[in-house]
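In response to reviewer comment 3 from the previous cycle, which asked for concrete evidence that the modeling workflow produces usable outputs, we include below a single protein chain processed end to end. The sequence was submitted unchanged, and the resulting structure tokens are shown without manual editing.
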Amino acid sequence: MNISLVLKVAGIGLIVSVAHLILSKNGRDEQASFVTVAGVVVAMLMLTKEIASLLQSIKSAFGI
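The workflow returned the following structure tokens.
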């Protein structure tokens, strides 16, 4: 796993949390929820390659 991937995911988390805080303070709770969901989706899309690699390692370890 590359450290840049960890930093990218942390950066997305930071940006999403600030956006959520600003939107919820302004009374736009629905948009704040959408921003949070979008941030989770973007982070998961970035991690799909690593998750696939992990699952492949697990398969080979158990001989499935």
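The chain has two helices and no strands. We consider this sufficient to address the reviewer's concern, and the full set will be provided in the supplementary archive.
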